[in-house]
Amino acid sequence: MTNAPSPESHPSLDEQLRAAEAGDSGGARIARSAGLAGARYAAIMATLVALYLLVVVYIYPRDILWLNIVATAVFVAGMLGTCVTYGRRRSASGLGWSRRYSVGFALSALTFGLGMALLDLMDSRTAWLWIPYAAVTALPLLAAGLMRSDR
Amino acid sequence: MSPDGAPAHPRLQLDEYLSLPVRLSIVAALARVDDAEFAAVRDAIEVSDPVLSKQVGILEGASYVSTRKGYVGKRPRTWLSLTDEGRAALRRHLTALHTLIDGL
Predict the structure, then answer these.
(1) Which of A143, B28, B56, B96 ranks highest by number of CB atoms within 10 Å?
(2) Residue A7 counted as domain residue
(3) How confident is the prediction for chain B on average, in pLDDT?
(4) Which of B12, B28, B41 sits opposite A3 (nearest CB)?
C-alpha cells in the first residue's frame, strides 16, 4: 500500500473533510444508541440484583417453599430475559462496554456475597441497613451502565 | 522525510484506503464503538447495502475492519468492528488532514 494518493484518483480534501464530519455524526449516533441500550440493560440488571438481595433477606427466612421457588424463578427468568432481549435488540456496543459491564457485574456480585455473609453474622433484618445495602449492591452495575470511555 | 531531511509533505501521510469518503465514514463511525451491526452503520452513514458491503470488504482486506457473522433467532446479522490497525490508520489520516488544512 502506498501512502501517496494521486490527485486524479482521489476526492478532494474538501470532500474528505465533509466525509469525516458525516462519519463522525454517524458514529456519534451509533455510540449514543449503544450507550442508551447498555445503560438500560445495566439498570435493569442492577434493579434485579438489588431486589433479589431484599428477597433473600426478607422472604427466604419465612421458609415458605413455594414462595422461595417463585422468587428465585422470577429472578432467574428476569436475568435471562434481560440478557436475551439486550442481545437481540442491541445494534452496537460502546467502547469498552464488555469489560466495564463485567467489572460492574463482578463487583455487584461480590457486594451481594458480602451481604449474605453479613446477614449470617448479624441475623438482623432492619430496613435501615438492608435497603441502603441493596442500593449499594446495585451501584457498580449502574456505574458500568452510565460510564463512557474514549479510546 | 524528504531527501534534504525536511519533514515529508502531509499529503504523503494520507492513507490510500481512507481517501475515499465512504470508507472514511465507515471507519470514523466504527471508531466510536466496540462493534456495530451492519444495518446500524449503513443507516448512520446513509449508504446502500451493496455499497457498504463492497467498501467493508476492501477495508477488511486492508485489515482495518473485522466482521463477525451470527444469528439472532433465524435472522442473520453481521457485526463490524475497527481493528487496532484501522484505528491507528484513522488517527494518522486525520492528523495528516489537519496538518494540510492547518492555518486556513
Answers:
(1) B28
(2) no
(3) 89
(4) B12
Instruction: Report the number of distinct structural domains present in chain A.
Output: 1
From chain A, the residues in CB contact with B15 under 8 A are 3
Give domain status of residue A64, yes or no: yes
Region for B63 from its dihedrals, namely left if φ exceeds 0, alpha if ψ lies in -120 to 50, beta otherwise:
left
Chain-chain contact of B29 with A23 (C-beta, under 8 angstroms): yes
Whether residue B6 has pLDDT greater than 70:
no
pLDDT at residue number B11: 80
Domain that holds residue A65: 13-146
Instruction: Report all structural domains of chain B as residue ranges with CATH numbers, in order of start.
Output: 13-101 (1.10.10.10)
Residues of B in contact with A84 (CB under 8 A): none
Task: Name the pLDDT band for A151 (thresholds 50, 70, 90).
Answer: low
**Residue at A130 is within a domain:** yes
Q: Is residue A55 part of a domain?
A: yes
How far apart CA A144 and CA A148 sit, in angstroms, is 8
Partner A contacted by B22 (CB < 8 A): yes
Given a cut of 70, is residue B3 above it in pLDDT?
A: no
Can you give the pLDDT at residue A1? Answer: 44
Q: For residue range A50-79, what is the model confidence (pLDDT) as tens digits?
A: 999 999 998 877 778 888 899 899 999 999
Rounded Cα distance between B96 and A16, Å, is 12
8 Å CB contact of A26 and B39 = no
Beta carbons of B12 and A75 less than 8 angstroms apart: no
Burial of A35 by CB count in 10 Å (0-12 exposed, 13-18 middle, 19+ buried)? buried
ipTM exceeding 0.85, yes/no: no
Chain B partners within 8 Å of A35 (Cβ): none
